[in-house]
Design a protein that fits this description.
- This protein is α+β, with helices and mostly antiparallel strands.
- It has a single domain, classed as L,D-transpeptidase catalytic domain-like (Beta Barrel).
- The protein is built from two helices and eleven strands, in the order H-E-E-E-E-E-E-E-E-E-E-H-E.
- A hairpin with a 2-residue loop joins strand 2 and strand 3.
Length: about 180
């Protein structure tokens, strides 16, 4: 089974800007839409794990770019975290701090507490390392993080970094919706 859709998401810029306005978010932001490809990938009756069936969009005053993504853990197991829908704050940081230095890389990390729904447990709020980072080719590489396929990661990272710098933002809002 292919875990990456054949095409990038097709939300319009107008629809994305309506989401920002509804959430009262301005400047540079990222929108995540969980289950974007529910009807065309995996089981159409549920939100699948382990595939890039979600969508992420970078939206700024002068940019709008779509990316395939994953907003769910790769696996199901007791206490694994699923980021709750809402508006969360992120910043540039390092992913993989518990790994050897050679495996760490620049990604996006929590800039404030987030709320997750833990499998088998329920809601939990805090600092959990729910990052936005590069996924894998054969797995989404997530234990609760938001991931982008490797072929799209560098474009996502350089675009978001450039927009944050251009608009003088240290943090950005990440809006997660279904």
């Amino acid at each position: 089974m292919n875990i990456i859709p054949a095409n990038r998401p097709r939300l319009t810029e107008s629809e994305a800007r309506k989401i920002l306005a509804k959430e009262k978010v301005s400047g540079v932001a990222v929108i995540g839409i969980r289950g974007y490809y529910t009807q065309s990938m995996g089981d159409p009756t549920k939100n699948d794990r382990g595939i890039y069936d979600d969508a992420l969009f970078i939206v700024s005053p002068d940019a709008f770019i779509a990316f395939n993504g994953n907003t769910d853990p790769s696996i199901s197991r007791h206490r694994v975290a699923v980021l709750k829908e809402g508006v969360w704050q992120y910043r540039i940081g390092i992913h993989g701090l518990s790994k050897p230095k050679a495996q760490q890389y620049q990604a996006y990390v929590q800039a404030a507490p987030v709320t997750v729904i833990r499998d088998g447990v329920g809601p939990d709020t805090g600092w959990f390392g729910i990052n936005i980072h590069r996924g894998g080719n054969n797995t989404t590489s997530s234990l609760g993080c938001q991931t982008i396929p490797p072929a799209q990661w560098e474009s996502f990272r350089t675009t978001l970094n450039a927009q944050l710098k251009r608009h003088n933002q240290k943090t950005f809002s990440y809006i997660l919706k279904s």
